[in-house]
Every structure is written in structure tokens, then in C-alpha cells.
Amino acid sequence: MCLGIPGKLVELLGGTPPMGVADFGGVRREICLAYAPDAGLGDYVIVHVGFAISVVDEREAARTLAVIQAIPGGLDEISG
What we know:
By secondary structure, this protein is an alpha+beta fold. It has one domain (5-74): Roll (SH3 type barrels). Helices cover 21% and strands 41% of the residues. It contains two helices and five strands; from the N terminus they run βββββαα. The protein has helices at 58-70, 76-79, and strands at 5-14, 19-24, 27-32, 44-48, 51-56. It has a five-stranded antiparallel β-sheet with strand order 3-2-1-4-5. The longest helix is centred in the last third of the chain and has 13 residues, at 58-70. The radius of gyration is 12 Å and the shape is globular.
């Protein structure tokens, strides 16, 4: 099963490929933006294995993140 986690894009790092920093409910990780080139600061992106794969609206991101946080250890892989 593949799992994409919504995160808020809080920093653009530039580079080739383009990189950024996403916030996942308080946990921040560097991500690759090559597959979501239209993502901008403040956008919510779905991240799978370190790659932003799509932009989603804030409401959907919040709903998905709430479900993941409700699972015991749901964000362990991100915060580890």
C-alpha cells in the first residue's frame, strides 16, 4: 500500500530538482517538488517517499492529517 501524507509547504529551497520544506502537523521535512512544480508557499501537498506528488486544498489536507494522527504511531515514520 502506498501512503501519501499531506504537508504544508513552508519553505522553497530552489535547486535542480526543486526542493522545499513541508510541515506535517509540527514535523518538518525536506521534500522534492519535481512532480508538483506549481506548488507555492502555503500550499498543501501530498508527499510520498519525500516527493510532493500533488497539491490539495487545505480542508482536505486537514481531514487527512487528522485521520493519520488518530492512528497510534501514525506519524512515527515522519518524526523519526
